[in-house]
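ESCALATION

Customer reports they have been waiting on this structure for their group meeting. Please prioritize. Original submission:
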Amino acid sequence: MLHRSGRLEAVFKRLLTRQHEDLSDAEVYGFNISALLAGLCGKLGARRDPYSEFLKIGSRFGRQTRSAMAKRREQDWKNTIFFGYDTGFLEAAAWAKDQGAATVVCQMDPSQVEIEMVREEERLWPGWAKAPLRVPEEYLAWRKAEWALADVVMVNSKWTLDALVKLGVPSEKIAIVPLAYESEEIDLASPPRAEGPLRVLYLGQVNLRKGIQYLLEAVRKLDKKHFHFDIAGPIAIADEHVVTAPSNVTFHGAVTRDRVREFYREADVFVLPTISDGFALTQLEAMAHGLPVITTPNCGEVVRDGIDGFIVPARDSTALAKALESLDDDPERLEAMREAARQNISRFGLDALDQNLRAIEQRLRPSPKVDLI
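Update from on-call: job pushed to the front of the queue and completed.
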């Protein structure tokens, strides 16, 4: 059935794009077989809430990583920095720290602060979410244990830093490292805007956290003849809100990476009305394709307001509609923002990421001889 539906091919296509050519000679430990088997068992077994499943997967990955590290007999642990992502960090990092390593956990989202904001959206927009957000206390406690264990908690935005401080993490323990984006495949020449309505792209999970409810509210305040909205991504809102959306809105559902490029090429503007995001890499992808970005302050600090896009208040559909209207009314400003967006992307290259990571390295291990794993 997977093969007939094309899902099996899609899985292998995604796996093939995970390995970067620059890592061809790197020492890589893979747990793909056990992950695939666990995933299959999960599909066949009883349904669990997603966050319990995340915790189960993270714990399994941490144990496997710990076992792999224990085989590194020649490792100089006192001159080693262990880096891991939240939920899969705790068990491996505890072992590494016992051996003398310094530890860094990357917390990818604002955690409980974001969760509470989504729950508030569910109260404000009853019946919109396909399923209510349920996060077990064990999951939140696990993350707090990771923050306590780590020598440095790395985040990708000030938005996440502020959230973690509210949750009790000392600000001096947190380091902001924005995400990076580089691609040599994109044609740097901005094509002229096509005739017809302004094409607005929303790309990502179609859910309350990403602010789809406010985008649809903004759409109803605009002239249909002047705008078309492409909504691409897994749909997590109730069907009734999809089928009753204005006629100039097209829901595409989940899309593959090759189709994502097509959406970027065909769009004029990218919109991210997020309630909360740890960073939102789509901002960088969109700008690399020459798209101005309209977003909120509740994500990574990418947009320079009025230069390569607009920053509007979260939960403000009127401000969102006005920002879109201003670009439709002023084609010259739109073109200037497109060029500025392409220039802005250079601030988020691999060189900047390298400098930020080396700053953390110097903070933890001033000695020039340091192993990173």
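Sent to customer with the following note: Residues 206 and 212 are 6 Å apart (CA to CA).
Escalation resolved.
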